[in-house]
């Protein structure tokens, strides 16, 4: 196991490392720095030590024979017996990646009942479907699913494994990665194959969405990622597709620490990510009172109101309406962007909109670069004229 090591001969007891530690993992004994169980191996103390007295001793991990791993897998999550839309988005991207790598695309579907959805997965591009039907899978308990993934990954050795960044996917994927000893990139917005190395390039927002980081997993397999719903294009279904279907048994559960006592379902929620028409607004709206105009325009055209992060931060709207890397990624048929400059994290959140109308007083605003129709003018005045026209 990796651990932080302090060379007591070099340590002078200056205390700089103790001041730099955010987890109170360092203290002083006999005028020497000591480490305790709070250490997270972040490495900040190493940079703070001017005497090079601190280092991290990494465990010798067993080398993985990467040549044994092949194929792309997509976890087909179900909810109330229906496959989630993000699965079909992942299959479309998975098919594209599999053609680049010259390998098969496999869909994994585990539940108490899955038969009715198998052909649907093949229609959306899966060359093979591995399924398991078992009563233990009726309730989405990570522990039950992990055993299946562990067994199948060790047997079939996939090169790439993709999950939707749903509530369950975000819970399950890291536990699977930890069990099989590989890395995981969460909340990806872009997946590509590096033409030279053949590695999966996994791009996600970093530093609060202010920049995009591309991450690779060169030494362990499978290469794992969760992908946000709505960021990948949905490919057309082809009902003439054919594929292999493999049934697998439910393995023995090693641990069962959780018991479901009661399941309470919330009502149906229509989120901004599902909207077909969106009127999106930023700081260019001027004042909070003008938000009523935005809601009226959205009402007249049968749409939802979306906002930038800045409006959520100042309390003019709720987080569930936020669009962008740190909010929801949307793919409506029509998006009207009002008073939005077009920061990179916001543009990434609207990149899959079918038609974008931009209203902005600044003709050089970055958001105009993604516009299908451009209106240069005060967004409040333009919205008022649109409302007047629609109400006539």
TrEMBL record:
Alphabetical UniProt keywords: FAD, Flavoprotein, Iron, Iron-sulfur, Metal-binding
Cofactor note: Binds 1 FAD per dimer.
Positions annotated to bind FAD: 283, 308-309, 322-326, 339-346, 360
Single biological process term from Gene Ontology: fatty acid beta-oxidation using acyl-CoA dehydrogenase
SUPFAM superfamilies membership: 4Fe-4S ferredoxins, Adenine nucleotide alpha hydrolases-like, DHS-like NAD/FAD-binding domain
UniProt cofactor(s): FAD
InterPro entries cross-referenced by the UniProt entry: 4Fe4S_Fe-S-bd (IPR017896), 4Fe4S_Fe_S_CS (IPR017900), DHS-like_NAD/FAD-binding_dom (IPR029035), ETF_a/b_N (IPR014730), ETF_a/FixB (IPR001308), ETF_alpha_N (IPR033947), ETF_asu_C (IPR014731), Rossmann-like_a/b/a_fold (IPR014729)
CDD domains, per database record: ETF_alpha (cd01715)
Family: Belongs to the ETF alpha-subunit/FixB family.
Protein name: Electron transfer flavoprotein, alpha subunit-like protein
The organism of origin for this protein: Alkaliphilus metalliredigens (strain QYMF)
